[in-house]
Amino acid sequence: MTAIADTGMSGRTSLDGAVLGPSLDPVWGEGGGADPRLRVVGAALFALLVVALQHLPALLAALAMAGGAAVTVRLPLGATVRRLLAMDGFMVLALASLPFTVPGAPLAVGGMALPPLSAPGTWQALTILAKANAVMLMTLALVGALGPVRLGRTLARLGAPDKLVHLFLFTVRYLDVLNREYRRLRTAMRARGFVAGANRHTWRSIGWLFGMLMVRSLERSERIAAAMRCRGFTGRFPNLADDRPLSARDWGIGLAALAAMAALGLVDVLW
Amino acid sequence: MAHIPDGVLSMPVLAAGIAVSAAGCAYGLKRLHPDRIPQVGVLSSVFFVASLVHFPVGPSSVHLILNGLTGVALGWAAFPAILVALLLQAVLFGFGGLVVLGVNVMNMAVPAVLCGLAFRRVRRAFPGNARAAVTAAALAGAAGVLLTGLAVAASLALSGREFLTAAQLVVLTHLPVMVIEAVFTAAAVGLVLRVKPAVLDDPAPSDDEDGEEPP
Fold first, then answer.
1. pTM of the prediction?
2. Cβ-Cβ contacts under 8 Å, A129 against chain B
3. Domain ranges, ordered by start, for chain B
4. What domain count does chain A have?
5. Which CATH class is domain B11-53+62-195?
6. How many CB pairs under 8 A join A and B?
7. Using the beta-carbon criterion (under 8 Å), do A218 and B185 form an inter-chain contact?
8. What is the mean pLDDT of each run of 10 residues along chain A (271 residues)?
9. Has residue A115 been placed in a domain?
10. Closest residue, chain B, to A96 (C-alpha)
11. What residues are paired with A130 via a beta bridge?
12. How far apart are CA A33 and CA B112, in angstroms?
């Protein structure tokens, strides 16, 4: 769909030069794989289960399951690892204080006690880290790899409100258009000698840029609405209501996933 | 750190976030007239692109939250718009978890709607006064970030006393963003008011229909 897919993995747009936009392309095409509804519901159930798990061994098994799913849908390795590390770096900020703030016996490594670090605090930090990584990896594998357009249609088939789905699809549709427009305006600013820095001038200039983008995109949305009415839009996208039933293979995959998740819960309870 | 990952918060906080966000989105969607969906969708793509821009601050960089501006431009529709944006960020980039989506939406959308309502009140109180509107926009930009920072800190602190240090850090890291976002929002709103003020007009007339299509 777009030329920014090659750079689009980090979801970050730098003010200077290299611009990284969101990737709107699904990692794989329409064929193959389980029914998208199964993938969305499965990711949600998995996230609920993992958040409720208490013990590290079950969480490591969950992490392994998520890793298996990521390998199965062939998530790009480098980009996925980069995203996980970005989140982990972020979480260290919140978790680094836990070994110091949770009361309990000091952490002992190989018989040597490390007094300021408490053992329960360290375990809690590791537990949280494992949960966050397992959920994120499974979400990227099952839902992210669908691509946002199929996700929108899947949400419609799962009974999300029409207006919400339309809003979702419009947002997705114009992300790429507006990202390109942003880059055009930024190129023009650079051509006029603008250099981004930590100063009021930068913040105001980028503010004006996005004010301009708001005005232009609003005019665009009026044209879109007019064109849609021209073609007889009545408030529904007819092809959203595609209701193919689950195949036997889908049922098999779904039941296997349920069984695996039940086993995970059981391990956690019995541990 | 407005995107809290999964596994951090306690169950009562997660449940409260889901309840508030579901109610807010339902109300926002109910008030959203179908004819305004393209407008709201296109504007939320603008805010999505803008929130990916990284501003240099010292050796590091920060990105904006823009919930103040979202509230000013979209009013109650900020709730579903922020839900869509955060869902996309979680699914495409892994920013924020799935179960905490409710809490993350609540922490950003409640301040957004408050800022939007306050901004509209100022505009009605001083009709045609661009300076008052721009000042209100700057305050909305700062207040959106501040309230979100406090809400994130409160979500952490309510989940366990051991997160108090992290909660204080979160508020601290939001302070530079507040300053940048106040200047940014004032500039963006100032430009829109000069070029096409109708964009920021209260869409009250269509709201009265409660989003129902005329027969």
1. 0.87
2. 7
3. 11-53+62-195
4. 1
5. mainly alpha
6. 267
7. no
8. 36 45 44 78 93 90 92 86 83 79 72 72 87 92 88 89 91 90 92 89 92 91 86 71 76 89 89 77
9. yes
10. B166
11. none
12. 39
